[in-house]
Amino acid sequence: MSITSPVTTGLGNRWQDAAAPRDSEEWLDRAQEVADILAVDAVERDRANATPHAEVQLLKDSGLITLLGPVAHGGAGESWDTAYKVIRTVARGDGSIGQVLGYHYLWAWAARLVATEEQITAVEELYTANRFVFGGAVNPRDSDLVIREDGDELVFSGRKSFSTGGQISDLTVLEGVVEGTETHIFAIVPTDQDGIVFADDWDNLGQRLTESGSVEIRDVRVPWGSAAGFVDKVFQPLTYNTLNVPAIQLVFANFYLGIAQGALETASAYTRTTTRAWPYGGGDKQRATDEWYLREGYGDLASKLWADEALLDAVGAEISAVLHAPREELTARRRGEIAVRIAAGKLRIVDDGLEVATKVYELTGARASSNAVGLDIFWRNLRTHSLHDPIAYKKREVGGFVLLGEVPEPTWYT
């Protein structure tokens, strides 16, 4: 890792004496400042693959960690509409850190999704006042954690092969099933305890700084009173509880968009300063930026990302409205309609983003394939996380809605 890294050389809190942002536009400006810092050495830090403690401290210092937290406890009290755009902005500078931030927002909202009013108040005060970062040991493709009852306590045990946030989190969301039943329980626990053991085995093609490796949960004890949404050991269900999946799917789509935007910005800057015009095509150009095929190429890619941004902004406003509305108001139909539109936005940015991350090489030239340029980080990051769940199923959900008016049933992935 570069010893001159702006993230790791102890710059301190550059915002310590700065006024807090006052509205969503100022928070987006703050996010851009963070992205600019991260972008300087994103490639070097990616290759070093070190646990991103300094990067997470940057998110805390900037105030972005508590963007959704209550104002009464030092948070910004902002909307999910703003949070999605902040995720996207940070991901332009570093896709891994954009993902960490997005997952944190979802897990920080987990109490609102499923917990009682008293539990929501306690969790939001805890994480906001302390600027705590969330991770989650919830990967649904693995076996559920097993929960056994021991008097007034629940004891979680098991293993998850993915746990984004991992060692950089302060709080971890657990989810398991009470043995001998079909009762699922969420609980939020401190990460720093003997019963949570990270394997430090995340070494994938992309999104390398997300701390998404495996974790063992060894007899982690939780009071029954901390079982999210349970009253007298009985869960109180709402349709609102199922918004976790469309909310996180839109988190994905927004950091995908940020990664693709970062690729286009990086490539166009390289073309302006370094790419040479092609001298053998007739009507020779003096500058690469005068080449018709480069102008056409950048115009094609930019127009696709602008269209994707418009769709993600529109559906972001839709889900934000229901996330901030009274929980009892959401209907299954409205939830499904929003999920379909998020599926459409996700499938578009996956296709368009991968095209951008690949074609930028054609627009920058052979010299841009140098490892020193680092254009590969964008394709690696987007390709890695876009495999999270099959995009074909998102297309099927949209098709079922268009043809038959069907909305998807809530699952761990829809």
TrEMBL record:
InterPro entries: Acyl-CoA_DH_C, Acyl-CoA_Oxase/DH_mid-dom_sf, AcylCo_DH-like_C, AcylCoA_DH/ox_N, AcylCoA_DH/ox_N_sf, AcylCoA_DH/oxidase_NM_dom_sf. Coiled coil: none annotated. The keyword Oxidoreductase applies. Keywords: Oxidoreductase. Gene3D superfamilies: Acyl-CoA dehydrogenase/oxidase, N-terminal domain, Butyryl-CoA Dehydrogenase, subunit A, domain 2, Butyryl-CoA Dehydrogenase, subunit A, domain 3. It comes from the Bacteria. Residues 250-388 form the Acyl-CoA dehydrogenase C-terminal domain. Residues 28-119 form the Acyl-CoA dehydrogenase/oxidase N-terminal domain. This is Acyl-CoA dehydrogenase family protein. It comes from Microbacterium luteolum (Aureobacterium luteolum). The lineage of its organism: Bacteria, Bacillati, Actinomycetota, Actinomycetes, Micrococcales.
